[in-house]
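::Amino acid chain::
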Amino acid sequence: MSQISVKELLEAGAHFGHQASRWNPKMRPYIFATKGDIHILDLDQTVAAIKKAVEFVGSVVAQGQSVLFVGTKNQAAPIVRQEAERCGQYYVTNRWLGGLLTNFKTIKASIDRLHKLEELTRTPDFEKYTKMERLEVEREIKKLNWIFAGIKTMTRHPGCLFIVDPKTEDIAKREARRLKIPIVAIVDTNCDPKEIDYLIPANDDAIRSIQVITKVVADACEEGAKRRQTILAQEEKEERAEEEKPTAALVTEREMKEKGKAYVGRGKKGEEETTEEEKG
């Protein structure tokens, strides 16, 4: 499983929290010291937390479930999108649409409309539309893609959420909690860690800090996907073996019947020969 060191986190500035005046007291256990009115996070705890988080994320993907990456802050969005696409997972980086999880049926209807409009533009019929009508369709596609680009193929709730800054992504956090979907998150000193299942105490504003941690989570997704393929291949192998068992048993039974008939035939023939000899 991919891992990260204290040195890498230190170089990324992951240990810098917010100003002491802006802290959330519930983050006290993760704070190592205060320097120049800035809280310094305990990176030994961060490394341990990352290890637990990536193990969980890997297991989620290995079980055939997905991970939804969430990061809409300017410094987080490009990184979150890039890493989610790299590991083949879903993402929300522009705006969290209220009800995305709790009212997924309605959201799915909008996604289906996006697919239909995109399919329409690829048909000859689209050329029959007026210029204004085509422009309206293209505008709607652009708008829907801006909202749903990262979840266009998502057909069910994800197995877990990975959030950069749960304070900013509060709506996403609350929807996940309501549906009991586990949350993995980068949590800074100004956040409430209470409702995070796998908390990673680290700087959630510095680009480099977001980058190194998100990369490790994405690596865990890739490794989980490989494990999933291995599991599926093994299951397929076992299913084939199971399917072959009845056939093999049938052949064996048939062979035994044929051998039995042959034996009986030889026995009768032998008896007849003996009887002829006796008669002679």
User: Anything to note?
Assistant: The beta strands are 16-19, 31-35, 38-41, 67-70, 90-92, 160-164, 183-187, 198-201. Residues 70 and 163 are 5 Å apart (CA to CA). The chain is about 55% helix and 10% strand. The two ends are 88 Å apart (CA to CA).
